[in-house]
Structures are given as structure tokens and as C-alpha cells.
Write a structure and sequence with these properties.
The protein is of the alpha+beta class. The protein folds into three domains: 59 residues; 97 residues, Outer membrane lipoprotein wza domain like (Outer membrane lipoprotein wza fold like), CATH 3.10.560.10; 88 residues, 2-Layer Sandwich (wza like fold). The strands form five sheets. Strands 9-8-14-11-12 form a five-stranded mixed beta sheet, covered by helices on one side. Strands 4-1-7 form a three-stranded antiparallel beta sheet. Strand 11 and strand 12 form a beta hairpin. The longest helix has 29 residues. The radius of gyration is 29 Å and the shape is elongated.
């Protein structure tokens, strides 16, 4: 009778351990999903989301400038220069070290053929485009100007599937866009504490974003700026590794339970 009691007691302890493993697994999974509170958010709060602020041109930026006129050959000199490789850019693979366009010098100026030097630092791409069009109208007839950043770059590092420096054709880039380009977070990524590093006029700014909460839509760091760095730190528990260990543990426990059940049955 005592042996049977001891076996049953051992079985109870094993089942408690088994339940503890399952509960800890569920707790870990709660940290994986994004925007867990989104169903509790009302429309008024979402209306207060951070507004996009157009980036301004800074020294060492590379601008892609193309001038089109009624005579396609008129702007050929400028457009040909715009396609000359300029050191300092990056491609999506981060292996390239060249971008085509006009380098903004230390004085914040670019130099266009037949038009001369223009100070564009501190301007948005729209403002710079209007400035170039006004100056080009003195040389060309009814010019149409296209201008964009040729090296609008953000870097995504840490626990993502494809860490790299990404050059983007679009100035409106959110933290979610950047993480999508990097293949999303790995299971090891800490989703509630993503670090943003920003260079603001030579001074570093830092922000921590919680991807589990919809509050990130209200953050001034939700939209990234040129040369921002996104760092996803590894979580402490290494979720995928712990889940693998838990699966093995559950398998062992299941085997132990089976043996104990068989042992109990033999006492009947």
C-alpha cells in the first residue's frame, strides 16, 4: 500500500511539473504578438497618431536630380552627371558603396551643369525641386524637375532575419516598413524594447519602442529619418530555444507518466 501511495505521489509531482512547463510556455508566447491592445483602442486615440515630418537635406546627402524639357536633349548634360556614381551610398545588400546623383557638399550645396551651385541643405526635397526648377527656367524652356534622395538609408540590426543597411526610394518610412524589409524579427527578438538611434544635428537621440503596444503609432520615432539605426536586442529567454527545450521536456515527462501509469496498473 505504501509503495502504491508513493507511486501516486510521484505521479502527482510529475503532473505539477508538466502543468508548470505548459503555463510558462503560454506566458512566453504572450510577448510575441504585435499590438496586443489594438482591440481596446478607440478611434479618437488612433487619430492622435504621430504625423509624418518631411526630412530635410543635409550635407553628405546624395540627391538624384533629373531635368526634363520640351527638347529631351536639353537637360542631357545635367541628367548624365546625375547618373555618375558617387561614393558613400548603399544598396539594399549593403555591399555596394556607390550611389548615383549629386553629393551635397559641406556647405550644403550641389553644383549642376549650366545652372551652377545651389544651396539645398535644410530644404525638403519638394522645396529643393522648386528651387532647381526656378533656376533651370533661366536656362531651359519649361523645365520639369524630378528630385529625390539617392541614399535615404536606414540600418536594421540585431535579431531580425535579414540585418542590413537599406537604401529606400521613399522618404516616408515607418519602423514597421524597416522591419518588414529586414524580414521581421526572429523569435529571439525582444519586441517590447526595440531601440532607435537617431543623429540629430550631430547629437545622438535614443528611443525605445514597444511593438506589443499600439502606442508606437503616437511616437515621434514611428516614422524613421535618414540614417536611423534600428536595433532589436535578443530576449533573455531565447524563446525558440526554450520552446525547443520545453518540447523535449514534455516528451520526457509524457514517457515518465506512461511508465508510472503502467506501474500503478500493475499494483491493481
Amino acid at each position: 500500500m505504501n509503495k502504491k501511495y508513493n507511486v501516486i505521489r510521484g505521479l502527482s509531482l510529475v503532473m505539477i511539473l508538466f502543468s508548470t512547463v505548459l503555463v510558462s510556455s503560454c506566458v512566453s508566447s504572450k510577448k510575441i504578438a504585435y499590438f496586443q491592445d489594438i482591440q481596446a483602442i478607440n478611434q479618437a486615440k488612433l487619430d492622435n497618431a504621430a504625423a509624418f515630418v518631411e526630412p530635410t537635406i543635409q550635407p553628405d546627402d546624395i540627391l538624384s536630380v533629373n531635368i526634363f524639357t520640351l527638347n529631351p536633349q536639353s537637360g542631357a548634360i545635367v541628367n548624365q552627371a546625375a547618373n555618375t556614381p558617387t561614393l558613400g551610398g548603399n544598396s539594399n545588400s549593403s555591399l555596394s558603396t556607390q550611389s548615383t546623383g549629386f553629393l551635397v557638399d559641406k556647405n550644403g550645396e550641389i553644383e549642376l551643369s549650366l545652372i551652377g551651385k545651389l544651396k539645398v541643405a535644410g530644404l525638403t526635397t519638394y522645396q529643393a525641386r522648386e528651387l532647381i526648377r526656378d533656376k533651370a527656367a533661366e536656362v531651359y524652356k519649361q523645365p520639369n524637375v524630378q528630385l529625390r534622395f539617392a541614399n535615404f538609408k536606414v540600418s536594421v540590426l540585431g535579431e531580425v532575419n535579414a540585418p542590413s543597411a537599406y537604401t529606400l526610394p521613399n522618404e516616408k518610412v515607418s519602423i514597421l516598413d524597416a522591419l518588414s524589409l529586414a524580414g521581421d524579427l526572429t523569435i529571439y527578438g525582444k519586441r517590447d524594447n526595440v531601440l532607435i538611434v537617431r543623429d540629430n544635428n550631430g547629437k545622438k537621440e535614443f528611443a525605445r519602442l514597444n511593438l506589443n503596444s499600439s502606442d508606437i503609432f503616437n511616437s515621434p520615432f514611428y516614422y524613421l529619418k535618414q540614417n536611423d539605426v534600428v536595433y532589436v536586442e535578443p530576449n533573455k529567454r531565447k524563446v525558440s530555444a526554450s520552446n525547443s527545450a520545453q518540447i523535449q521536456t514534455i516528451g520526457v515527462l509524457a514517457s515518465v507518466v506512461s511508465v508510472i501509469v503502467l506501474a500503478i496498473s500493475s499494483f491493481k
